[in-house]
Structures are given as structure tokens and as C-alpha cells.
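Hypothesis: this fold can be encoded by more than one sequence.
Test: take the C-alpha cells below, design a sequence, compare later.
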């Protein structure tokens, strides 16, 4: 049986920093011996809040967490308007989608995220069955960078952060995300495969390590 089959999920709406955001909420399957579970925020990639992200949320929930995956692009439109209508199975369809997706990514600035993370934490802790303790946060690709920034913004509220296949962590500006690591008090895991060109390490003048 797949892990996600041991969890349930539902589509909800939560209050975000600048308006209402669609979200997906996943919980463990019925557990008579436990009334509360730790909370987790799941930040999507640039392709948006779609069935694959919902599957990820249910898989994490099956391990004993209440997982909230918000539509980070709520300022840009609904999930239907910000996700592809069909799978991106070829270079042409991917290029066409990302022509519109990448400007959305760049418009989700750090100051907007700072307003959102406060609201997402409030929403998560307001869900029934969520333990009153620091939450975990995880993100895939774009979501990994945003998860790191969120953990830096709210070090007392986030106890663990995990980044997967994340790009854009290091650049040559004073705002480079990797410089915020010193502000993170959470346990931190960053996993990036080195077999794809976009994920190979690059030297940065702002970093003392290769």
C-alpha cells in the first residue's frame, strides 16, 4: 500500500498575507491513540499546487503529521489558472508554461513571503488536531528556497526545514538566500541531486565555499 493511502486530504481556503489562498490539507488516517500531530507546511514548486503536490502532502501526513500546502501564487490567480492543464511531457510544453511561470516566481518577493508565512503558521496552528509546538517546513524546487527564507523569518516557530531539488539558493547579491542560514535555528536538511546541469554547484563571490 502506498504511504499516501494512509492519509486523507481536502481542499480548503486559508487566509494569507494579502488575501485568501487555496490550500490542500492532509491528515493521518484515523489514529485512536493520538489526538494531536505536529504540523508541517509544504511549499510547492513553480508548477503550482496540483495533484502531485497533494500526493506529497498525503505521503508526509501518513507519517504522523498534519500538512498544509498553500497555493503560494494566490496573488496571481487560482490553482487552475497557475498550473498546467496537461502534463509537461516535452520541452515545447515546458518552455511554454515556464514562460509565464517564471515571472510569477520573481514576483513572489521576500517581503510578500514574510507576510504570508505569518498567516500560514496561524492557519496551520488553527487546524484541529495540530500540536502546539514548532512546525516543520519543506519545499520542492522553488519551494525549498522559500522554505529556507520562512525558517529564517520565524526561527522560534519552525523546528525543522527540508529542501529538495532546490535552485536559486546562492547568488552574488547581499540578498542571496544562503546568507539567511545563520538566522535559522531549525534542524536543516538540504538534498540536491548533482546529475542535472541546473543543480551542479557554482562558485559565488559572496560565498567562501565552492
Amino acid at each position: 500500500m502506498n504511504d499516501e493511502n494512509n492519509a486523507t486530504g481536502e481542499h480548503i481556503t486559508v487566509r494569507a498575507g494579502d488575501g485568501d489562498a487555496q490550500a490542500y490539507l492532509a491528515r493521518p488516517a484515523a489514529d485512536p491513540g493520538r489526538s494531536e500531530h505536529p504540523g508541517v507546511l509544504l511549499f510547492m514548486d513553480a508548477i503550482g499546487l496540483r495533484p502531485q503536490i497533494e500526493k506529497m502532502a498525503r505521503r508526509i501526513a501518513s507519517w504522523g503529521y498534519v500538512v498544509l500546502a498553500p497555493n503560494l501564487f494566490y496573488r496571481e490567480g487560482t490553482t487552475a489558472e497557475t498550473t498546467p492543464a496537461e502534463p509537461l511531457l516535452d520541452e515545447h510544453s515546458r518552455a511554454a508554461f515556464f514562460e509565464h511561470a517564471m515571472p510569477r516566481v520573481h514576483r513572489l518577493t521576500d517581503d510578500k513571503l514574510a507576510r504570508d508565512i505569518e498567516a500560514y503558521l496561524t492557519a496551520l496552528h488553527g487546524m484541529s488536531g495540530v500540536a502546539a509546538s514548532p512546525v516543520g517546513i519543506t519545499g520542492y524546487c522553488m519551494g525549498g528556497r522559500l522554505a529556507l527564507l520562512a525558517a529564517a523569518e520565524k526561527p522560534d516557530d519552525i523546528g525543522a526545514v527540508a529542501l529538495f531539488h532546490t535552485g536559486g539558493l546562492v547568488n552574488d547579491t547581499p540578498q542571496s538566500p544562503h546568507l539567511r542560514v545563520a538566522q535559522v535555528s531549525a534542524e536543516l536538511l538540504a538534498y540536491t541531486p548533482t546529475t542535472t546541469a541546473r543543480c551542479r554547484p557554482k562558485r559565488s563571490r559572496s560565498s567562501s565555499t565552492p
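The radius of gyration is 17 Å. Residues 197-210 have pLDDT under 50 and may be disordered.
Hypothesis status: open.
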